[in-house]
Known about the structure:
Elements: H1 6-22, H2 25-33, E1 59-62, E2 67-70, E3 73-74, H3 75-81, H4 84-93, H5 99-112, H6 116-122, H7 132-143, H8 149-155, H9 193-203, H10 209-230, H11 244-253, H12 259-272, H13 279-289, H14 294-305, H15 313-324, H16 330-339, H17 357-373, H18 376-400, H19 406-416, H20 424-444
Antiparallel strand pairs: 1-2, 2-3
Helix pairs in contact: 1-3, 1-17, 3-12, 4-20, 5-10, 6-7, 7-10, 7-14, 10-11, 10-20, 11-12, 12-20, 13-14, 13-20, 14-20, 15-18, 15-19, 17-19, 18-19
Amino acid sequence: MPKTFENITNIVLEAADKARKEIDADKISSYVSAPVEWPVECTVGPGLEGAIACETKIGYVSGKQGNLVYRGYNIFDLCAHSTYEEVAYLLLHGNLPNAERLSEFKSKLAEFRYLPKTLRLLMGFPLEDMNAMAALRMGTNLMRQHQTERDLMQAKVDRTKVISSDDDSVDTHEKVRGEQRAVYEFRDPKANRPARRKAKRDLQQAKGVESCYHLIAGVSTLTAAIARIQRGSLPIEPDPELGHAANLLYMMTGKRPTREAERVMDIALILHADHGMNASTFAAMVVASTLSDIYFSIGSGIAALNGPLHGGANEEVLKTLREIADPKRVDGWYASARKNRRKIMGFGHRVYKAYDPRARVLAPLADYLVNKSGDAEAKNLLKIASGLETRVVADLGASKGIFPNVDFYSGLMYSSMGIPSEMFTPIFAVSRVAGWTARVLEYMKSNRIFRPRATYVGEISRGFTPLADR
Ligand code: CMC
């Protein structure tokens, strides 16, 4: 690692060291490597808690120990020694890329980061008045245009319904057909065949890995463009010389980031890239399982991620810290939150009943960046965050296994990098799109439509009452 990254890498290594002392890796290997004997009996709770949706080789979350593994590699090692591009490739393909594969993958991402047509379409909407996640979801829908076989089939012109080019006028009693349907005979009908064939080969439904690359690159371009448009600026073209994390920062701010900022963003992207059967991953997989397509799947992932119980929590955390406003008010605020049975954003997790390993890395990074920035407000918020963590963990850590999660410190970190809070969740999506696409691809290899049951507890034989008698 170049010297400029050393500070950041050391922070990750220290966090990893601390975590390793508490995590019993041998114990984790013993229960992961134990062969699964089907059928498996498990208890299923509300919210499908405990239900098994599929088998996977992509990632493993140890809730008891607070450990996270992508394709066999520990998250701490990946943060310390790899880049987001390597991790995205690993998630999609199962192995870390060698130099040649990595270079090919990076070139593909560089190519797919250009979305001129999608951006032109997106800018036709009032993005400045929209929620950034809604805009991002719409953007992925616009990226989809003509990228799937189904779109191409629908785009085929029905020649029986077109206005013939040798008619120089259309009788007024005839129904005038829209321009879209006009076919000009001087145009070579074979002209768009290669593109069509390529689209079919590369992007057909959820099968083409290139559509995954397209989305991984495109979600970052869209996020950066939305950030700029919402603040009254025009989108900036990607810089082909920059990597994924640096390009995201560059396209958002218009300035090439420092090597340190790039490395911090890279680590944040690595940490958020995949996380088991979380709600947004499952949403993406459910949509894919109907043989819809990868663009719709990722749009569903974005929609699910937006909620404050999921990725939307990072933005909510900052609101909470601002609401508390003063480190001296933490105890009073917490007492009242507990009395009102209020959920404290950035704490708790369905799986982790120990410290979230991602928060172990993000907490010291936020601390480093906030203190380096010298920003008094950020320092104050950090103090509040640290006080709140102490308070929550003392009360709910041992009794309910509630600790800070990935969203608790990420917002503080992003805001100390000058990123506006409405972009925190879209940045989560920029990263998670790797996990979403990898898991959809994996599931599609042995796809079966998702269709759980609900236990019917309603009435069963009511007599029908005519409208007039109700
Ligand atoms: N603050 C206070 N109490 C909590 C919290 C919290 N943040 N989280 C869970 N609890 C309590 C909850 O009240 C319940 O208590 P009781 O058994 O007395 O009713 C118990 O812990 C179990 O909670 P739950 O809501 O049933 O747990 P869940 O597995 O359904 O939900 C969760 C998990 C993440 C939605 C929840 O912990 C939560 O709402 N946290 C706050 C939102 C948040 O930070 N979300 C980000 C999650 S991590 C990243 C991501 O997925 O995007």
